[in-house]
Amino acid sequence: MPRDIAVIARHTCVLLARDPGTLIAYAVMSSTLMAVLHPVYQRMAGPGVSGATSAAAGTAVMFTLLALDVAGEQILAERDWHTWDRLRATPARPVAVLTGKALPLVTVFLALQALLFAEAGWWYGLDLTAGTWRLPLLWLAWASCATALGLALGAWLNSRGRLGAIADITAMITTGLSGALVPLTGLPRWIGDLAPALPAYWAVRGFQAALGGHPAGAYTRAVLAITAITVLAGALAALGTLRRTHRTA
Amino acid sequence: MLHASRLRRRFGPATALDGFDLTVTAGEICGLIGHNGAGKTTFARIACGLDRPDSGHVLIDGADPARRAARRLTGWAPQEPALYPTATVRDNLRLYGGLAGLHRRRLRTEIDQVTTAMALHDLLDQPVGRLSGGQQRRVQTATALLHRPKVLLLDEPTVGADPATRQALLAAVRARADDGAAICYTTHYLPELVDLDATLAVAARGRVIARGPRESLLDGLPGTARLRFDGPAPGHRGQDTLVITSPRPAEAAAHALTELGSDAARLRGIDITPPTLDDLYRHLAAPESTHAA
């Protein structure tokens, strides 16, 4: 099975590299938006959280969520190209196919976050060393979560149009209500009550905790919450894939 | 090698397979012919492990097609192109070859050989989406042949191919059969089955209604002899051609010549047409189709 995963992961990298427009656009847009919004984040920063931390965390979370459709596309395109049945007719197991598709996406989402935090460190003085191992671990956890959510959307939706619409709406609403776009201190209280139900809230809180703006334990709770959501979304993606397998049969 | 027994499969009220039996032995090319809806594609999907029959079974070298061991032995090229259009021909071949267990040098060697055999070598680094329909069909067939499977299921692989590339593709398929593969070849171009020296299976209404070597299935079907005359044919006012329909048209024509008498001087030509696969197809499948309708 590791060999099948490697073959599919390599092929997914080829597909992403052949059509990189969306990912490049998200990288440029997120970088630009962070530059534009940094002064706003600076003014609205909550106690113990720097503007640079809020800007980097908020932008990284928002654009990782906007890129959910890139992940979902990896499943939906297989149906449009009629290649799903060809994959099923090979000796590769469905879990190997799903894992092989997920690994490059996790890497891409991880790189997108690293790029934004590096930019915040370079231009806005964000002290990345304060996060030590906790920051890369959270990048990885959040990248895995976004990948699982995107694959689940791709496995359960039936068209690219729906995927694009739902991914964008989900990303914007989740980003807005989680405090990623505007810090929760600047939003109505009911949004603050609702925010813990959203994965983006835990990502933002985790980044702030990793860089020293939250009490001890907040980081661990954030990682655990993100991991739980990842497992749930991964299970949904697997179920959706199996459902598709039986339906096409 | 490929053995299907009493397959039944229903999709809601529609019966796709209704007692489908077929055995293809190692080294044999079986031409599976039949009207659209005869059950050919459903059979192929079951043989690939993509679908399960309601009853009956398929064995690939003794194994259930749903098992990984059986899938490694099977190559399948479906009717509609199923390739990654943004990836190159080489990328597509690497994927399917890699999943079939080919790696590194062996994978490179097999890609080289199959693309050369199928006149695809110059297209290796072209994105599949930029190829013509016929070229894409060849790439699809190449992905099925790549790992030298023991059982090959090819569904109309020559659609859209020009005569030269069709011959290259048929030669590659023939070569795999000579290497011992059992090949189930679906087509509507019946002369291809003569070129492939294939045995025949005629499918209609979800089952195989005729199976065997071409010669034995054609035996007994009527062919035609056409005798053309300068002026009216003997006994046919206004028509210059005497048409004789017989299971042995050449013998019938020879017999007619002995009875021409003075009319033999007006004979301008003789055309003998033995029974063809098209005749067989019409003879066997058409009544079934009409009945089904």
Automatic annotation (TrEMBL), chain A:
This is ABC-2 type transporter transmembrane domain-containing protein. Keywords: Membrane, Transmembrane, Transmembrane helix. Residues 6-210 form the ABC-2 type transporter transmembrane domain. The lineage of its organism: Bacteria, Bacillati, Actinomycetota, Actinomycetes, Streptosporangiales. InterPro entries: ABC2_TM, Nod_factor_ABC_transporter. It is a multi-pass membrane protein. Signal peptide: none annotated. It is found in: Membrane. The chain crosses the membrane at residues 21-41, 53-71, 102-125, 137-157, 169-191, 222-242. It comes from Actinoallomurus vinaceus. It comes from the Bacteria. It holds the Pfam family ABC2_membrane.
From TrEMBL, chain B:
PANTHER family: ABC TRANSPORTER ATP-BINDING PROTEIN, ABC TRANSPORTER ATP-BINDING PROTEIN NATA. InterPro entries: AAA+_ATPase, ABC_transporter-like_ATP-bd, ABC_transporter_ATP-binding, P-loop_NTPase. Residues 2-230 form the ABC transporter domain. Keywords: Antibiotic resistance, ATP-binding, Nucleotide-binding, Transport. Belongs to the ABC transporter superfamily. It is a peripheral membrane protein. Gene3D superfamilies: P-loop containing nucleotide triphosphate hydrolases (3.40.50.300). GO terms for molecular function: ATP binding. SUPFAM superfamilies: P-loop containing nucleoside triphosphate hydrolases (SSF52540). It is found in: Cell membrane. This is ABC transporter ATP-binding protein. Pfam families: ABC_tran (PF00005). The keyword ATP-binding applies. Its main location: membrane. It comes from the Bacteria.
